[in-house]
Specification:
- The protein is an alpha+beta fold.
- 34% of the residues lie in helices and 23% in strands.
- It has two domains: 4-133, Creatine Amidinohydrolase, Chain A, domain 1; 139-365, Creatinase/methionine aminopeptidase superfamily (Creatine Amidinohydrolase).
- It has helices at residues 4-17, 34-41, 65-72, 84-94, 109-118, 129-134, 139-159, 169-182, 246-265, 272-285; strands at residues 23-28, 47-52, 55-61, 76-80, 99-102, 122-125, 193-196, 219-224, 227-228, 231-232, 235-241, 297-299, 306-310, 323-326, 329-332, 336-339, 342-346, 351-353, 364-365.
- The chain has a four-stranded mixed beta sheet, sandwiched between helices. Strands 7-8-11-19 form a four-stranded mixed beta sheet.
- α4 (84-94) crosses α5 (109-118), α7 (139-159) crosses α8 (169-182) and α9 (246-265) packs antiparallel against α10.
- The model has no long low-confidence stretch (mean pLDDT 95).
- The protein binds zinc ion (2 copies).
Length: 367
């Protein structure tokens, strides 16, 4: 197996090569760009990364110096005693650079403005080059994503027999997270969404928003993921508490049909727009077109939303080694929503589905 240090160095090389500039700067503060720093160096803390050709320096502060030394191998670590932007400007100046690329969507305007005023160089906005590189996963990254998907699947399998009418959304979410962490997940992949009843119509519901309890006939939606070596799975399953109402069964079978049709359409060479359109057509033909407002899917990896995008606006074409979600849904305010979300690894001729919790019918639980 290739040593992590060598992998990080080759990623840094690929990144600088992809740019029309000799140097690149990235900044992670309060998780603003932890994926870039982790992907390019292995560092999981806060700091600034300056890359110049094969050379690079990681600037951080005393809270992270020891951690950085453990995580980044040979890469030079600079401990800032003053203001990090000042030290970053000095590092850029010392290398005689007149242009440095950065990804505007990853930094704050105040960071940009401070750095710009401190030095005699131009900061050139480039559209998130690390995110582009991260779209194609290596076999090692796919192993971590498969493991994260498996942990999520198994946690839900273990939880289902415990569900009872009267249990609260937050209590269920906590139990799910407990099961995932017990099975080796690093925290959670993202904020766990457990919603029931009319709350299932809110796409990004958080149990802290309502704290509703399970009632007979409720839809019960789980949208959650585990995290392994920084890589995040993202699965949604919609179940029903007790006997499912007719409308819930009807919506469920449509969403499932859209999910399966889209999965069958995934292959290298297909565009994000084409695959999205397959699912959208199934839902629109049944008259629910305006109840499916979001995109069909998104890449997963060190972040829960990354390239490729599968949507009506997508500019991406699928390639073997990309890992994406497929998540059509139908949401009816006041009644509830259904979403069925799987994670798939794109292959030359199709895809491997790496989420395995059963979805073939609307499962009745809690009785
Ligand atoms: Zn999700
Ligand atoms: Zn998702």
């Amino acid at each position: 197996m290739t040593k992590p240090e060598i992998i990080y160095a080759s990623r840094r090389k690929a990144l600088v090569k992809s740019l029309d500039a000799k140097a690149f700067i990235a900044y992670n503060y309060e998780h603003s760009d932890r994926a870039t720093l982790r992907y390019l160096t292995g560092f999981t803390g806060e700091g600034t990364l300056l890359l110049v050709g094969d050379d690079g320096v990681l600037l951080t502060d005393s809270r992270y110096t020891e951690q950085a030394k453990r995580e980044v191998g040979e890469l030079h670590v600079h401990e800032c005693r003053d203001w990090m932007a000042k030290d970053a400007a000095a590092e850029i100046g010392a290398r005689g650079l007149d242009r440095v690329a950065f990804a505007a969507r990853r930094v704050t305007y105040s960071w940009y403005d401070a750095l710009r005023k401190l030095g005699e160089f131009a900061l050139v906005d480039v559209p998130d080059p690390t995110n582009d590189l991260r779209a194609l996963k290596s076999p090692e990254e796919i192993v971590a994503l498969r493991r994260a998907a498996k942990i999520a699947d198994e946690a839900l399998r273990e939880l289902v027999p415990e569900l009872r009418v009267g249990m609260g959304e937050a209590e269920i979410a906590l139990r799910l997270e407990w099961l995932m962490r017990g099975a080796g997940s690093e925290g959670v992949g993202f904020e766990t969404n457990v919603s029931c009843g009319e709350n299932t119509a809110l796409n990004h519901y958080n149990p802290a928003m309502g704290g509703r309890a399970l009632h007979q006939g409720d839809l019960l939606l789980f949208d959650f993921g585990a995290c392994v070596d920084g890589y995040r799975s993202d699965i949604t399953r919609t179940l029903c508490v007790g006997r499912a109402p007719k409308q819930a069964v009807e919506i469920y079978s449509l969403v499932l049909k859209a999910n399966e049709a889209a999965i069958a359409a995934v292959a290298a060479g297909k565009t994000g727009i084409e695959v999205d359109a397959v699912a959208r057509a199934v839902i629109a033909e049944a008259g629910y077109g305006d109840r499916f407002g979001h995109g069909l899917g998104h890449g997963i990896g060190l972040e829960v939303h990354e390239r490729p995008s599968l949507s009506t606006q997508s500019k991406d074409t699928l390639a073997a080694g990309m890992v994406t979600t497929i998540e059509p849904g139908i949401y009816i305010p006041g009644f509830g929503g259904v979403r069925v979300e799987d994670d798939v690894v794109v292959t030359a001729s199709g895809c491997d589905v790496i989420t395995a919790f059963p979805k073939e019918r609307l499962i009745e639980v809690g009785t």
